[in-house]
Structure formats: C-alpha cells, structure tokens
Amino acid sequence: MDGGLFEGKRGLVFGVANDRSIAWGIARAIHAHGCRDFAFTFAGEILEKRVRPLAESIDARFVLPCDVTDDAQIDAVFRTIGEQWDGLDFLIHAVAFANREDLEGRFLDTSRDGFLRALEISCYSLVNLSRHAAPLLAARNGSVLTLSYYGAEKVVPNYNVMGVAKAALEASVRYLASDLGPEGVRVNAISAGPIKTLAAAGVRGFRGMLGIAEEKAPLRRNVTQDEVGQAAAFLCSNHAAGITGDVLYVDAGYNIMGM
Ligand code: NAD
C-alpha cells in the first residue's frame, strides 16, 4: 500500500490507553499511510496523561474525553467533530472491558452486573458509536473497524464473558454492515491473535495464551501491534472498498488449526 493512501482522510479513534494499545498501532499505521486528521478519545483523566502526548506526536486535531457508558460524553464528541469536520473516513473501535473476577474461573459464575457491564462496554458501544457516526461516515463513504478475538467462537479458558461479548460484537458487525451498507458505509472486524496490552493483562493466564499461540500457529509466532495496524489500514482504505461485514484474522494462522 502506498504512503499517500490516507491523504486527506479523517478518522476518529476509540481505545488508545498507552503506546502498547492496538488502537495506537492502528493509528500509527494509518498515519504512515498519509492520514493527517486524527481525533482521539480517552476514558478517564488517568489515561488522558498517556493518550494526549501520543495524539500530539501525530498532530491530532482533537483529544476528547469519552467513557462509552456516558451518553453525554458521546454526544459531546460527535457534536465537536460534526461542527469541525464535514465527514469521517474511518472510525476505530478498540474498546473492551470486563471485571477482573469475570476473566478467571468458570463462565457459569458470571454475575448479572458483570455480564451486562462487559456486553455494554465491549459490544453495545460499537452499535451506539456507529449510530452517532453514521451521517458523518455516509458523507465520505467511510468505514468502521472493531477488534475481536478467537474466544468469540471457541472456548478459551478464562476469556469467559469476554468471549460471549466478542461473539455478540461479531454478530453486531454483520447487522451494522447490513444497515449501513446502503449508505456506502462499511463495517468490519479484525480478530487479532494475543498481544500483550493493558486489557490483555486482565485475563488470567494471558502469558500462557501467548505461549500456546506461538507454539501452534502456522507461523510459529505471535502477531505484532504493527501487523494488526497494517491490516486495519487495509480494511479502512479504498483497497477494501468491496469488503463489509467481515471478520479478518490477523493471528499468524492460529484459527485454522484443528489440533
Ligand atoms: P488496551 O487496554 O490498550 O485497550 C482497551 C481500551 O478500552 C482502552 O483504551 C480503554 O480505555 C478502553 N475502555 C475500556 N473501558 C472503556 C469505557 N468504559 N469507555 C471507553 N473506553 C474504554 O488493550 P487492547 O488489547 O489494545 O484492546 C483493544 C481491543 O482489542 C479490545 O477490544 C480487545 O478486546 C481487542 N483484542 C485484544 C487482543 C489482545 O490480545 N490484546 C486480542 C484480540 C482483540
């Protein structure tokens, strides 16, 4: 892909917590392909300290607070963007959360509150943000990209309620793609192999997941933040203009193995 692929494009990124975040890998890759108009959001004051310098390092236009459970903050983000920009070329949704106690032991023991919280933050937020962004995305034939994991399809020990949230997320990608397709808006997901990030550290035994993926994946290694970033850049670019409602694996091939 050429360096100017994203020249003149505008994007909104949810999910940067620090420089290890997959969302940051995606922003860096898209920036390398020529995008100069970024808006970032951060969830809470503590993360602002980390997100703002990263955003400033690529001259982001906006750095806005947004906890996805707070409708007033979501409204404020889209009001600001809508006043300043005539549209959006891409929206990155790299947001997930589950209570630590729900990422270990038995899925059977998930509480109602834990279940609803995981599904609200990790899945409903995609629906909510896509609805808010739809008119801006439609104005520029834009696309939405979210992040999933293999635990959506198969049982991965300790992934538990997050696997259920990712299954709902992947189904949401298809329903959103169907709703927004007639307006020229695409919606896709990347199912990424395990990468050491803040969110990943919340899953009990995550280091073991990295080891097993490395041992079993056809490429005999784990994927990098940059590899997910490059695939995301492809899906958000015109090179993927015919692709929507899809889940693309960026997992060194792990998902194809039966044994
Ligand atoms: P990360 O911790 O860097 O990113 C998770 C982000 O979710 C953080 O920026 C956090 O602020 C945000 N978030 C959590 N609750 C929020 C809320 N209420 N409002 C707004 N934002 C909120 O970790 P990551 O691994 O980069 O995660 C990004 C996405 O990638 C997640 O959807 C995750 O499930 C997915 N994913 C991660 C892996 C992996 O192994 N790291 C693999 C596949 C998919």
Care to describe what's here?
The chain has 259 residues and is α/β, with parallel strands linked by helices. It has one domain: 3-Layer(aba) Sandwich (Rossmann fold). It has helices at residues 22-32, 45-57, 71-84, 112-138, 160-180, 198-201, 206-216, 225-236, and strands spanning 10-14, 37-42, 62-65, 90-93, 143-148, 186-192, 247-250. The chain has a seven-stranded parallel beta sheet, with helices on both faces. α1 links the parallel β1 (10-14) and β2 (37-42). α1 (22-32) crosses α8 and α3 runs parallel beside α4. The radius of gyration is 17 Å and the shape is globular. Nicotinamide-adenine-dinucleotide (NAD) is lined by residues 15-17, 21-23, 43, 47, 66-69, 94-97, 121, 147-149, 192, 194-195, 197-200.
Concise synopsis of the structure shown:
The protein has helices at 22-32, 45-57, 71-84, 112-138, 160-180, 198-201, 206-216, 225-236; strands at residues 10-14, 37-42, 62-65, 90-93, 143-148, 186-192, 247-250. It is of the alpha/beta class. α1 crosses α8 (225-236) and α4 runs parallel beside α5.
